Amino acid sequence: MRRFEYHKPETIKEALGLVTSLNNARFIAGGTDILVALRQKKAEIDNLISLRNIGELKGIEYGDGLWIGSGTTHTEILKSRVILEHYTALNDGVKNLGSRQIRNVATIGGNICNAAPSADTACPLLVLDAKVLIAGINGERWVDLDGFFLGPNKTVLDKHELVKGFSLPLFPKNTGSSYIKHTRRAAMDLPILGIAARITMDDGKEGATCREARIAMGVVAPRPIRAYETERFLVGKPLTEDVMEEAGNIAAREATPRDSIRGQAWYRKEMVKVLVGRAIKNAMERMGL
Amino acid sequence: MMRKEIRFRLNGEEMVCDVEAHWTLLYFLREIMGLTGTKEGCGYGECGACTVIIDNEAINACLYPIMEVEGKDVTTIEGLVSQNGELHPIQKAFIEEGAVQCGFCTPGMIMSAKALLDENKDPTEEEIKEAIAGNLCRCTGYVKIIDAIKTMGGGR
Ligand SMILES: Cc1cc2nc3c(=O)[nH]c(=O)nc-3n(C[C@H](O)[C@H](O)[C@H](O)COP(=O)(O)OP(=O)(O)OC[C@H]3O[C@@H](n4cnc5c(N)ncnc54)[C@H](O)[C@@H]3O)c2cc1C
Ligand code: FES
Ligand code: FES
Predict the structure, then answer these.
(1) Ligand 2 centroid to A98 CA: how many Å?
(2) Which residues constitute the domain of residue B38?
(3) B126 and B103: one domain?
(4) pLDDT confidence bin for A42, thresholds 50/70/90
(5) Which of A2, A120, A209, A231 has the most neighbouring CB atoms within 10 Å?
(6) pLDDT at A203 over 60
(7) Residues B26-80 pLDDT 10s
(8) Nearest beta carbon to residue B67 from set A6, A75, A102
């Protein structure tokens, strides 16, 4: 492993001071992406600044919305009842992320800041309308998660900024969400495709129609994306088999996957058709209409 | 580069050690402490051969910066054996059920099993599979490993 210095600030302020003053410095949270990159010599870094000992970055709070600190581990997310009940897609996202050993140290902030097109928490957070709170030496700013990703491993973060955490709104009662990770094996595999859905239905009992829809897709573009056209199509409709099938077709047109070792582009498009409907169904089942 | 002093507990003993900042916990255990029960398979978090327990949680020592061990409680496979040299019940179960072949995965597998059993005394087969999903075994086909962990559960 390349030699580096390791810094352990205890406050955000201290961390931002270090990243601004040190040469060739990068943050490390759980380290499961950055240490692998260092070992593979894909990154050259002289100073690692650990975010692991900063209390302000940890924990989940539920009140007039949900707050998840960037330093929260996937294991902590998996244990949260509030997330299981009200933000189910995110529970789906972390359930099969890596192994137990990985989830015990890897963080949601690291998963989002690493910005892999396959990041398993990205699509769930997109459909859950997450906003990102960014802190820099000159203050803080909020960015919609959809505006945060720029491309593979690229985000709007300046190199001297860090993510404090994610804020998710409260959703009306008739809301359900889900994420499907399509892989060859259940555990320890990056997705061939990731599809998330959130559906909010109208109050009306019979013939209820869709009031708000969110569909997000991973590994079909250089970054996790929202399927805006599909979402617009769903709004105002009853979610019948036919409507879901058509939604799948529209989403497949919005997807621009590439061939890769995990799957061919045509296969990914075909699977988008199938999985969008399935993700919507799973979301509806969780709604307890 | 300058060495740094860190303090932590290793298999129940208080340690004060001089380390280099870029070391992983795995490097420290094997190369500095000579605790070679913890194995290096991939070095990338994929195989679980390096699994140890830190503050009750199973982690991959190959991806754990030594600097983060400060103040923590680390248990390796060597720490499971009792003072008088008696094997830990999980180790005995692995032997009795024939869950060990070449043995390379075994220390990591047992540490994952221990972390699970400390948290959940009577895990279901699904829970066992989930807990060892990050531990690869090239020999046994997993069935006997799962059986061995099952025998540790309450009623079975
Ligand atoms: C064996 C293995 C299996 C894996 N399986 C999966 C999987 O199934 N699905 C999946 O999505 N991922 C998977 N991963 C990737 C990785 O574990 C996740 O992306 C993880 O969530 C990264 O979090 P971390 O805290 O370890 O990030 P780190 O490696 O610490 O950081 C990642 C990047 O983000 C930056 N960063 C971290 N936190 C912040 C912050 N708060 N502000 C600004 N920048 C920050 C770091 O500088 C670094 O560039 C796997 C990795 C391994 C090794
Ligand atoms: S050596 Fe650590 S997971 Fe393979
Ligand atoms: S016994 Fe040989 S790898 Fe598991």
Answers:
(1) 13
(2) 3-79
(3) yes
(4) confident
(5) A120
(6) yes
(7) 999 999 999 999 999 999 999 999 999 999 999 999 999 999 999 999 999 999 9
(8) A6
d(CA A68, CA A206): 36
Q: How many residues does chain A have?
A: 289
For residue A273, give Cα distances in angstroms to A220, A247, B146. Answer: 12, 8, 37
Number of domains in chain A: 3
Confidence of residue A261 (pLDDT cuts 50, 70, 90): confident
**Could you tell me which of A120, A86, A92 has the C-alpha nearest to residue A106?**
A120
In a domain? residue A53: no
CATH number at residue A187: 3.30.390.50
Assigned domain for A215 exists: yes
How long is chain B? 156
The secondary structure element, H or E, covering residue A233 is helix A228-234
On whether both A145 and A223 belong to a single domain, the answer is no
Reported as a single tens digit per residue, the pLDDT across B102-154 is 999 999 999 999 999 999 999 999 999 999 999 999 999 999 999 999 999 86
Minimal Cα–Cα distance from B84 to chain A, Å? 30
pTM (predicted TM-score):
0.96
A102 chain-B contacts, CB cut-off 8 A: 45, 60, 134
Percent of chain A clearing pLDDT 90 (strictly above): 88
Q: Can you spell out the DSSP letters for B97-140?
A: TT--SS-SSHHHHHHHHHHHHHH-SS--HHHHHHHTTT---SSS
CA B152/CA B156 separation, integer angstroms = 7
- Note whether B122 and B60 are within 8 A (CB): no
> Is A135 in the same domain as A218?
no
Going by C-alpha positions, the residue among A260, A230, A258 that lies closest to residue A244 is: A230
Structural domain span for residue A131 = 59-169
Domain count, chain B: 2
Q: What percent of chain A has pLDDT over 70?
A: 97
* Residue B156, domain member (yes or no): no
Quick count: other Cβ atoms within 10 Å of Cβ B15? 13
